[in-house]
Design goal:
Radius of gyration: 15 Å
Helix content: 40-55%
Order of helices and strands: HHH
Number of strands: 0
Strand content: under 5%
Distance between the termini: 27 Å
Structural class: mainly alpha
């Protein structure tokens, strides 16, 4: 976790060294990697009111 991520976690009131926080951050990064191709597929207008398939 870089300095900016640590500061953002602290700003939210959490301990950046807590194992639960580290695990949650890894889950988010994994999900973003899995769906990174969607950023080039959909526009905001395409997603208006429509849920993204899981």
């Amino acid at each position: 976790m870089d300095h900016d991520e640590r500061e953002a976690v602290r700003d939210e009131g959490y301990d950046p060294d807590h194992p639960t926080v580290l695990h949650a951050l890894e889950q988010v990064k994994c999900t973003l990697r899995l769906y990174r191709h969607l950023a080039w597929t959909f526009t905001a207008a395409d997603l208006d009111g429509v849920s993204v398939p899981r």
